[in-house]
Design goal:
The protein is α+β, with helices and mostly antiparallel strands. Helices cover 41% and strands 15% of the residues. The strands form 2 sheets. Strands 1-2-3-5-4 form a 5-stranded antiparallel sheet, with helices on one face. Strands 6-7-8 form a 3-stranded antiparallel sheet. A hairpin with a 5-residue loop joins strand 7 and strand 8. The longest helix is centred in the middle third of the chain and has 22 residues, at 109-130. It binds adenosine-5'-diphosphate (ADP) and magnesium ion. This is mitogen-activated protein kinase kinase.
Length: 310
């Protein structure tokens, strides 16, 4: 197939982010719809281009992880990099905001469990098989489709493009960062920093609020991440959280990186075990139910996008 900018038909903007804009596009020859992320690059070195392609390519060619968004190819055009990937229905940030703020409902524990396991499986696959640390775990990088599949996107990009990308937002606006990423000038990125970001993400999805929301400015939020006790979820309450779930999320939010678990340890927690599907076995009714709910909400959110903006 021809695969360049003129072989794609623009169908409109899906969303804007830190590094650029995501468009819905149709591959004219095959009729395939895809999400295309246009990243404005100042002067990407050939070496960096190659690395970007290699990282994504290995991921696609292996195709062993069902929880990673498929990569179709990258196009370099006029100093921009266009990443063509699987089109999903919606990202978790939009989905949960619609559920909590518009429907005045909440995401139930089964949904949180299915999201947690899907994301951990994707992250540990990237680390173990590809030697990739994600570095940007947050609700908008966790995508859902109409069948309730949960997939991770935007891996590796931060690391490769850090120096050559024209950032569209201020660097300070990243309050999913772990304390050790803020407090120290540390070039060795530990997987456990992603575990923290996952903890913040799950906390946010479980409660409907970002845990550092009460601090108004990004600077105050970042100071709070470093100086305050970590966010802590209580068992029970009006949301009736299980002990399994709060233990799991709270352990991800261990402030001291050395004491925070890695994926390998998280996989022993009862909350993980409850929602993981061992190879060869069928999903439990709880997982099936979570898929149904998330699939429904994904389509509903996609069909009512305006209400959640702002
Ligand atoms: P961010 O992740 O910081 O929000 P991005 O530029 O990565 O910014 O993405 C912008 C928005 O586009 C995301 O918030 C998400 O809602 C949407 N999006 C990204 N990738 C896809 C995809 N593959 N399928 C559907 N929507 C996507
Ligand atoms: Mg993103």
């Amino acid at each position: 197939y021809t695969f360049n900018l003129s072989s794609l038909n623009d169908q409109g903007i899906i969303g804007n982010g830190f590094y650029g804009t995501v468009y819905k596009m149709k591959h004219i020859e095959t009729g395939k719809l895809m999400a295309v992320k246009r990243i404005r690059c100042n002067n990407l070195e050939p070496k960096e281009k190659q690395r970007l392609l290699r990282e994504h390519d290995t991921i696609v060619n292996s195709e062993k992880c069902a929880n990673i968004v498929k990569f179709y190819g990258a196009i370099f055009s006029e100093g921009d990099c266009l990443i063509c990937m699987e089109l999903m229905d919606v990202s978790m940030d939009l989905l949960y905001k619609r559920v909590y703020n518009v429907k005045h409902s909440r995401l139930e524990e089964n949904a949180i469990g299915h999201i947690a396991v899907s994301t951990i499986d994707a992250l540990s696959y990237l680390k173990d098989m590809m030697k990739i640390i994600h570095r940007d775990v947050k609700p908008s990088n966790i995508l859902v489709d109409s069948k309730g599949n949960v997939k991770l996107c935007d891996f590796g990009i931060c690391g490769v493009l850090e120096n050559s990308v024209a950032k569209t937002h201020d660097v300070g606006c990243q309050p999913y960062l772990a304390p050790e990423r803020i407090a120290t000038v540390n070039s060795n990125y530990d997987v456990r920093s992603d575990v923290w970001s996952l903890g913040i993400t799950l906390y946010e999805l479980a409660t409907g609020v970002f845990p550092y929301q009460e601090w108004r400015t990004p600077f105050d939020q970042i100071s709070a991440v470093v100086q305050n006790d970590p966010p802590y979820l209580e068992e029970g309450g009006t949301s009736n959280f299980s002990l399994d779930m709060v233990q799991f999320i709270n352990t991800c939010l261990t402030k001291e990186v050395g004491k925070r678990p890695k994926y390998r340890h998280l996989k022993y927690y009862s909350f993980y075990l409850r929602y993981s599907i061992p190879t060869g076995s069928t999903p439990t009714p709880e997982i099936e139910q979570a898929r149904q709910v998330l699939g429904f909400e994904a389509v509903d959110t996609r069909n009512h996008p305006v209400e959640i903006l702002g």
